[in-house]
Amino acid sequence: MKISIKIVAITLILGTSSILASNSNNYQISSRYKLLNDMNFAKKQQQLILEIDEALKTNHLNMVAYKKFTKILLGLLNGDKSLNLRGTNIPKIKSKLAEIQKLWKYELSTLKNANSDKNIEKAIQILNNITIKIEEVVSLYDKSYNRFKQRRKFSFIVNQHTLNSNQKQIFALNIKPINQ
C-alpha cells in the first residue's frame, strides 16, 4: 500500500513538472515572437470595433475609440514606438491591414456622422465589414505565430538530437569532451 502511494506521488510530481516545463517553454517561445504585441493589439482592435458599435446603437459618438482604432491601425502597419508596435513586413498581413486602413479612411466620415436610423444601419454594416477583415488579420497573425512556434520546436528537437548524437560519438570513441 505504501509503495503504491509513493509511486502515485512520484508519478504526479513528474507529470506536473513536465506540464510546468511545457508551459515555461511556451512562454519562452512566445516571448521571442517579435510580433506578439502587434498580434495582441490586432485582437484589441476587435474590442474597439465592438465599443464603437455599441456607441452607435445608443446614438453616442465615441471619439476616443475612433482615435485609438486609427492609431493602432497605423501602428500595426508602420510601427508605433509609443504602443511598442513593430509593424509587419509579412505581405498577407500588411495587405489586409492596408485594406482595413483604406476602408476605415473612406468610411470614417459616415461612421462619425451616423445620427439617423438609416445612417446607423449603414455604419453598423461598415463596422461588420471591418470586423470581418480584422478577424482575417488576427487569423493571419495566429498562423504566423503558430509557424514560429513550430520552427522553434523543430529547431529545439534538431539541436537536442545533434547534441545527443555528438555526446554518443564522444562516449563511443572514448574522447574527453572539451570544456567550453
Layout of strands and helices, then pairs:
Elements: H1 2-32, H2 36-57, H3 63-78, H4 91-112, H5 117-173
Helix pairs in contact: 2-3, 2-5, 3-4, 4-5
Describe the structure.
The protein folds into two domains: 1-32; 34-173, Up-down Bundle (Four Helix Bundle (Hemerythrin (Met), subunit A)), CATH 1.20.120. Helix content is 82%, strand content 0%. The chain has helices spanning 2-32, 36-57, 63-78, 91-112, 117-173.
Short description:
The protein has helices at residues 2-32, 36-57, 63-78, 91-112, 117-173. With 180 residues, it is mainly α. Mean pLDDT is 77; it is low at 16-24.
Main sheet properties: none
- CATH architecture assignment name of the largest domain: Up-down Bundle
Q: Helix proportion of residues, in percent?
A: over 70%
Which structural class matches the secondary elements? mainly alpha
Spatial extent as radius of gyration: 25 Å
Features:
single chain, 180 residues, mainly alpha, Four Helix Bundle (Hemerythrin (Met), subunit A), 2 domains, 5 helices
